[in-house]
């Protein structure tokens, strides 16, 4: 069983069923990743468009955008987490595969190969949907250049923090708090990182398809994605550094 899947409620503690419930089919999990990522990007892009139409104050625009993202992401994790783990993010999927690669019930290459394309397609669809809802051109490449070095550093920090949070919660058996914790972290990272915390390669690709408040120029996408992958590796290293003692303690306590 994968670390994120362990967040699903376990009613077996109250009453052990005679037969183990069937696992969620891959097609359902992939659909959840596609729909969830599409909805997430629609929230991010749509709220950005709405904010710019309601106010000329950039601070208020970012506040509205971040609040909508916090609420939307929390709801999506709560709704779809029991189905797919609510990754919505290739970095999280890859990290989940890596940490569970020795677990027969962990996320396998087949699931990774299905999750990541679904996330990317969903992100693009979400951006197009948001543009359609607000009467924007359905596909218009963003002209928002985000290639400055300090923005790239912001993406490393944002993604490393996200991975540390998710897998730290898994290590401490607190994944039931993921909807609130992850949404709160992303909301905070909107403000404390220079890049406004994309922290997600699929969302980054999707946001290149809209020339609105939340967009990113296609030329800036490779740099952002590269830094997000580096941030993911850094996050996993931090998880091992901070929470590695839990695995050693568990192993030491195991019966011979």
Poorly predicted segments: 6-20, 248-256
- How far the N terminus sits from the C terminus, by CA atoms, comes to 23 Å
Largest sheet: none
Oligomer: single chain
Structure explained in plain terms:
The protein has 256 residues and is an all-alpha fold. The chain has one domain (24-238): Glycerol uptake facilitator protein, CATH 1.20.1080.10. Helices cover 66% and strands 0% of the residues. It has 8 helices and no strands. It has helices spanning 26-54, 58-84, 90-99, 109-133, 149-171, 178-192, 201-207, 221-253. The two termini are 23 Å apart. The model is unreliable at 6-20 and 248-256 (pLDDT under 50).
Outline the fold blueprint.
Layout: H1 26-54, H2 58-84, H3 90-99, H4 109-133, H5 149-171, H6 178-192, H7 201-207, H8 221-253
Helix pairs in contact: 1-2, 1-4, 1-7, 2-6, 3-4, 3-5, 3-8, 4-7, 5-6, 5-8
Summarize this entry quickly.
Pfam families: MIP. GO terms for molecular function: water channel activity. The protein has 256 residues and is mainly α.
Quick tags:
mainly alpha; disordered C terminus; 256 residues; Glycerol uptake facilitator protein; single chain
